[in-house]
């Protein structure tokens, strides 16, 4: 099949941000192309950490099972600090993810970037989308015509794409796109072509990274470990198939060229990294590895792009718009989170379900996150690179300070702390109705039971990334009065003027919204047939806030979320799994009309 | 590839018992053929219930994931009884599996027999074994020569197999087998050919079965339900894909021919079954189904074969050796459990690792189970078919009696109550060392954590059905004294005279035994490197009895099993997951020598 030169979305770069985007678009049936300048994808090394929130995101695309099977699970983290007599000793072990009880996956997963990308590439391929390589953009032009820019039938971005190994066919082609996503890494061509600058600076911290199968008597080699010694710091990240990654702090003497005073990476070899690691490990032994799977050296830069988009037609994502130290395992996660945030918005707009203005929330949400990440990273990288407190160095960072900081950073590093601020799609007006269900944060995992068959159900599994808004109707206790209220509410929502019908394409509510009804009651006697049919489009859509038959899962969900079971509360979960808004029953219809009306197009525009 | 006319094992019948056996043998690389007289496999109906223990068994072969995904999960069971004013009402809902907390899978799974068989057929196919059909045995001869019967190099069973659709090739062939398994159903040709008789009798209970997609206002149609009404009894079994199976009690008037006084199945139609069900459902409505997926009528027979084997060269299994009522969902489970029990024994003997005498334990264990099952079934079927207690019928069975019996039968119907009695492979001598870990019962599920990386691990996942004996060394607390004891024990076990080396083929301990070391300690400071290397052949083999990082899984395993963490205890788990014996540290080496010596062949015989 010849490649189309008119596409809805052209993605530049097939790293984690690019493939996350391409897969999400492909799953929604969007016409997408993705190019990458590398002739073959990376095979080893690079990023390797998937944080708890990103596992949830993969699960929402149906991709977590393979990640979990192939990856290594990091449950605990050990801290090593200098002993008074030289060498290091373990001072504590703590859960690797903090707080583990609020996470669905109370651990991070490590797996090579190549294997993680494969999960997306295979999913895309099943939907007919493959990376075209080696190809790179050499020119990009965005229309200046306001009519074109405001129309969804036009293709206002023109990209000249060069095939790097073209022999028989034309070396360049022009691709006309409705949208372009530049996910082309820290040295992003797209970013530079658009004149977007990076704000922030390089640091003095220089680190080496090496992937090996270690032979050692270090007791916690199969655990995530942070070692701080008088010979420098080292971070251990266990990986799949017995691999272990070492992050090794380098001193100026190791890398700085005395003539120029500048870091010279060519002074470093993997053998040098191992020899530094050996000193840090003392008194534990680290044998020379038989093989070096991958290695690199980097100087930490902490920068955020001044803008994430041009005219909401071209976007940059991932390393193209933020760089930071890799030691908190944030890079790949932040990058994939960018395009997870962007993809559903592009799809809503391309389907003409939501207005172009929805796309403004991408920069609003993700640039703020990137800035928070950098400010966190500054503290974290400084702590990591700081000298430990010892008898000789009383001003150093103590073991307690370090592990305390590690723990307090937990909700950010796990990804579950991300909290988007107010916008058209985050309306915290009625936060009081569910005090512990924070509007702007991801819908937390929780076990409810299915009323019809008492199966335990993870609520997140009912919130797939399928571009639909999920309406969680917490109906509370099923009194007679409640049944009456629900019947009246069903009538109200069935009117053509209700938001459900007003914003659903061709009156097909289930294309745009997915309704889940959650009652408070007991599995021994709850009768879901009492709920008006409108609120149970299928028997699997009614959940109950009670424990399962073992008594070990579920129950007390209303309490957990800070909701009153005597009230009815409507929770809107965005297509990306974040709580968009919450409304009390009394004003729910009007509140929903306000909320969706702020970015959705009334169905009159469909045809 | 032409089919071999000399095979290690010939299986007759590709129902649940046959495919369980064929897959287990294929996974172990045994030379096996399996024939079935049906031209195509069953597509709908027949058995459909997988009980909690059988899910564990499937998991031990790596097959549970697909079952769980495709099947329907039965968590709860509702009871309906007559109302004083006519019609039925719900009197209670209870967990479908009792006691759910002791089960790894606290629910049964329902799925059509065809889909369950497919799971095995696909697994076998991956290993090059496929069912040959339509083919049937027409003659079977077992050698009378004692030398042949006691030799593993001879093929003492001669079976004439007829191809039922042979056109171009010979219609019959002679297959010479070392062993034959007759898994050819209730009307087993193998059983009849060997002159084995069924003991027991027909009952007067006549039931109809119908699989439909129901339209009803019966509130618990998606739950397992037992209805007892003045119009008869009905059992509801929800199934995959919205299907529901109804078991409907029929009265003599429905089926008995007044002329002959005998049951006449031809008097029954599925429409008749539905009309009986409608009466039982009253006051709830059951619409005429659009389609009948499958239906049948049966008269309950309760019989056990007088013998399960001839000369330990031909075995019968499944319905060929026991028939009973299907309402407790035992048929398919009992059948698959038969060959799960037999397969590893055949493999041990075929490899000349264990003596032929091991095979005697098949009948010892499975015939006893079948007898228990029948005596349970008599009570259960009688209860089910009895008239409910009402004002008019004061002698009937009350709702409390019925649901009480259902619950007390729970451990048997779930399959987890199976308890094999003493034999060469079940030695309860030292039961006192682990009071709650019953020798002869399956190793119960329990979460431990892996010492090296604090991953939670289900102990059953470390006990795959791989023909090896698992040695669980509970080493208790790691005191200095314990380290010394362990070092000495390691030396003792390393001697050529130790059972480990004596019974391992060519000195390859890991071919015959899998060692798992389980310590009592805390994840915050336990150091598994202190354990002598002999007891940690790989870092994943050392477990710790503590909670995982969430605090919600694991911990208190020694207490749960009734073990003293100040003592060392060795637990032997058989290849089929049952606890074979337990020994205290002091006599462990001698006890193991006694235990394995009673059925294993010293390695001198290998060559």
Which secondary-structure class do the elements of chain A indicate? alpha+beta
Chain-averaged pLDDT of chain A: 92
Tally of domains of chain A: 3
Total count of helical runs of at least 4 residues of chain A: 17
Give the oligomer, counting copies of the same chain as homo and different chains as hetero.
homodimer
Strand content of chain A: 25-35%
CATH superfamily of the largest domain in chain A: FAD/NAD(P)-binding domain
Counting DSSP E segments of at least 2 residues, the number of strands of chain A comes to 26
GO molecular function (chains A, B): FAD binding; oxidoreductase activity, acting on paired donors, with incorporation or reduction of molecular oxygen, NAD(P)H as one donor, and incorporation of one atom of oxygen
InterPro entries (chains A, B): FAD-bd, FAD/NAD-bd_sf, Phe_hydrox_C_dim_dom, PHOX_C_sf, RIFMO-like, Thioredoxin-like_sf
Domain FAD-binding (chains A, B): 6-376
Keywords (chains A, B): FAD, Flavoprotein, Oxidoreductase
Explain how this protein is built:
2 copies of one chain form a homodimer. With 607 residues, the first copy, chain A, is of the alpha+beta class. The first copy, chain A, folds into 3 domains: 6-72 and 109-198 and 303-376, 3-Layer(bba) Sandwich (FAD/NAD(P)-binding domain), CATH 3.50.50; 202-300 and 383-413, D-Amino Acid Oxidase, subunit A, domain 2 (D-Amino Acid Oxidase, Chain A, domain 2), CATH 3.30.9; 431-605, Glutaredoxin (3-Layer(aba) Sandwich). Chain A is built from 17 helices and 26 strands. The model of chain A has no long low-confidence stretch (mean pLDDT 92). The A-B interface holds A 72-76, 90, 92-93, 95-97, 100-101, 106-107, 217, 219, 221-223, 238, 449, 452-456, 523-525, 527-529, 539, 548-552 and B 72-76, 90, 92-93, 95-97, 100-101, 106-107, 217, 219, 221-223, 238, 449, 452-456, 523-525, 527-529, 539, 548-552.
